[in-house]
Amino acid sequence: MTQHLFTPASSPEAVGVPGRAIAAFLRRMERQRVNLHGFLIVRDGQIAAEGYWAPYTADSTHRMYSVSKSFVSLAVGLLIDEGKLKLDDKVASFFPDKLPPDPHRYVLESTIRDLLMMSTPNDRNSYTSEDKDWVATFFRHDPCHPPGTVFAYDTAATVVLTTIVERMTGVPFLTSMRERLLDPIGVSPDIWCIQTPEGTSWGGSGVICTLRDMAKVAYVCMNGGRWGEKRLISERYVREATSKQIDNSLGGHQGYGYQIWVEPDGGFSFRGMGSQFAYCFPEQRVMFVCIADTQGAPNGDSEVGQAFREEIFAQLAQGALPEDKAADAELRQLIAGLHILPQHGERTSPQADVIDGCWFVMEPNPMGITRMRFHFDGDQGIWEYENAAGEHRLAFGLGRQVAGRFPQPGYSGTRIGVPGDRYRCLASAAWVDPQTLNLLVYVTDHYLGSLKAAFGFKGDQVGVLMTKAAEWFLNEYSGFAGGRLVSDNR
């Protein structure tokens, strides 16, 4: 059986998934303009359907955000299997160099188990992007309740767990998982993790891998710790990790295991910000996995999960379904045409000729933009502007996406707080009415985010509204601004 895992089924119907249901899901995502990047449906270990929104492909590596936490859970589980860690070990014992002079008893009482199930003594995540030692902040944060009592989502807990794994193994936590888990299931060699300011892996949010990589790791959990018939991690640990260990119903959830969420219908999930999901349902022998960036969309996360449940999960059959060649052809055509949607609207307006190449001098504004102008050439354009970081140019498509680099420098690279290259992005614009140009920028790098801007023109004046949805970057691009066209400045 092992050799047949993650090979395409002859059709979705062959594994009891109606192709028409998958097509309905994809059309729903397009109607809702959900910014999905890829999806994968696995039933009985075979791929029922798989697709990617151009320019993403099966080989694209992608930021998994808090799905990373589930990877860390398995790294901890492997060390527990080897007898090198215990769930009841006190986490403070691993960090004599990080403890404050008089640590609170709640901190000293905190165990590996407490951190795995997000029941730390803290009320919130203890670090910010400005802190230089994230592990130290966990121990220095003022605790407010005994550990192991109530659920409080705390990414610093995962940072501490990751650092314990790396101190014990002497290698990055993903490297520690290679021989025992990642290599046997064929995880790509390109998997890696962004680093914290202190230089350890950011296991709380930083794993970058392919969609199939995430799906394979989740499948091991859905299969009770086995890949086919080969056991890779103990059944006991996986069973505990994927089942309810603590209540989180006040937040509208079903429970939480060890860095893994509990779902209805006997399921569990890996979840990451922006709709990185692996929904696993062992009883129904099915998993739905996706990558996306829905940070800027109202209810983006819930829309993806709800659409999967209503359009696909509810339509599953116990066994194979009759062949449906028409549905198969329709689904193949839909998948072949998937692409990230550009800004919706018209490609041109008479206003474009009026402002083309003209500078607008801006009043003081939160973005610090002092002047700006647009150039239009057919179905593409350039937004040129100046702010505190200098002069910038952003190319965009009109009614289509243009790939490039976002011009703002100084954002984090492979390590938080250490600047890297300018982020890759997709940019598009459209006239949403004759006087208003909307710009949509998707950052598609190791960091994901979006910038939306509206430019409204009235006579020789312009009004600007910018909003951003991104963690710790694009902060310069949020707020309102006004400006006036400078005479004879073409």
UniProtKB/TrEMBL annotation:
- What SUPFAM superfamilies does the entry give? beta-lactamase/transpeptidase-like (SSF56601)
Residue ranges of domain Beta-lactamase-related in the record: 29-297
Q: Which InterPro entries match?
A: Beta-lactam-related, Beta-lactam/transpept-like, Diverse_Enzym_Activities
Signal peptide span per the entry?
Answer: none
Q: Report what the protein is called.
A: Beta-lactamase-related domain-containing protein
Species per Swiss-Prot/TrEMBL record: Paenibacillus contaminans
